[in-house]
Amino acid sequence: MGHFTPELFNYLRQLKRNNNREWFNKNKDRYIEEVQQPALDFIADVAPGLRKISKNFVADPRPVGGSLFRIYRDTRFSKDKTPYKVHVGITFPHRSAKDVHEPGFYLHLEPGEAFLAAGIWRPESKSATAIREAIVERPAAWRKAAHAGVFSKSFHLSAESLVRAPRGFDPDHPLVEDLKRKDFIGSRSLDEKTVTSARFLETFLGACRDSAPLMRFLCEALHIQY
Predict the structure, then answer these.
(1) What is the pTM (predicted TM-score) of this model?
(2) How big is the CA angle at 115 (ends 203 and 99), to the nearest 5 degrees?
(3) 47 by DSSP, 3-state: which?
(4) Tens of pLDDT, residues 91-100
(5) Domains along the sequence of the chain with CATH
(6) In contact, 176 and 169? CB cutoff 8 Å
(7) Residue 136 contacts residue 204 (beta carbons within 8 Å)
(8) pLDDT, tens digit, for every residue of 165-180?
(9) 130: three-class secondary structure by DSSP
């Protein structure tokens, strides 16, 4: 038996239709049983396999402050005042990470939009420049990491890009489209059948292994251990 069941997706569908505190409080026991606890169990069971891939990424099964993102939305600066997220977010960050803008693995569970990802999302300016400089200095290594082998067969690179080449980089560089990237992330779509299968833990860890070329390149560019 796997960690996640169809009840998780059913709960999220219902939460999307009833995104208010009254409904959530009435169904909080369901949230804990069908969503939170399976996610925490998954994180705990990922930990041993993840350590075999790299000892520098963290699987933290604490219910608060760990790998599982809070279900509560931060609505302070948003026009959307619905109080709850309608997806489950799980992160396995690098042990040196101070926030979400560092290399890591990510699992997103949402009805119709589930996916897993590996890489770095919206790196700060200094980190983005370091990665772009590494691409320019080691173009063959970048092509091998991001555009060849098992990674390119398993993942699609994020399409979010700058309109022009970043300042200080040649707009005619043969890898300019990669230099323009806002994120350096590979993602793979998931269907609910895959997520709720008995072998999903192996599927997720296999994807982490497949992403090793990209993750190693990013860590080396940022001078941190893979």
Answers:
(1) 0.95
(2) 105
(3) helix
(4) 999 999 988 8
(5) 6-221 (3.30.930.20)
(6) yes
(7) no
(8) 999 999 999 999 999 9
(9) helix
